[in-house]
Design a protein that fits this description.
Strand content: 15-25%
Distance between the termini: 12 Å
Number of domains: 1
Structural class: alpha+beta
Number of strands: 7
Largest sheet: 5 strands, antiparallel
Oligomer: single chain
Radius of gyration: 16 Å
Shape: globular
Strand order of the largest sheet: 1-2-5-6-7
Helix content: 10-25%
Order of helices and strands: HEEEEEEEH
């Protein structure tokens, strides 16, 4: 407890449900982007391990096209972002192993869907001055930081 503010308790079930909805929204927005750009590539976003910071990876679907040739699905993925398992805060990646934690580093929260409403498959929404995350910068606060 800091400054007599009781942090909100995040249950595993609530966290898992919010993470599922977050990954589902990332996948939906990504597919929408690739359809609009007339591309066959359709990645799927899933949580993939980590203790304090859960990796969110994009995986190629079983029948994706890249550079015009059909490829089989793979278990290899690329890191899209990290999610803090304690409070649901979203961070852009600094590397494959760790999130970017310097300065004003929280980019959204999986418990507040308005903070990740306008995502893109390339991670541009994770940059601080991006127009994608203006809703989060304009008054939305990380969970438990009131």
């Amino acid at each position: 407890m800091i400054n007599n503010i009781q942090p909100e308790v995040v249950t595993k079930k609530r966290f898992d449900n919010a993470m599922y909805n977050f990954c589902k929204k990332l996948t939906f927005n990504s597919h929408k982007y690739y359809i609009e750009h007339q591309m066959d590539y359709r990645p799927v976003y899933k949580s993939a391990g980590g203790r304090k910071f859960i990796r969110v990876k994009s995986f190629e679907t079983a029948r994706s096209r890249r550079n015009g040739s059909l490829i089989d699905g793979t278990d290899k993925g690329s890191i899209h972002c990290f999610v803090n398992s304690e409070n649901g805060d979203i961070y852009k990646p600094a590397s494959w192993k760790a999130p970017h934690l310097n300065g004003d580093c929280v980019r959204g929260n999986i418990f507040d869907s308005t903070t990740f409403e306008n995502t893109d498959p390339h991670g541009g929404w994770l940059y601080h001055n991006s127009t994608y995350n203006q809703g989060f910068a304009n008054g939305h606060q990380p969970l438990g930081s009131k």
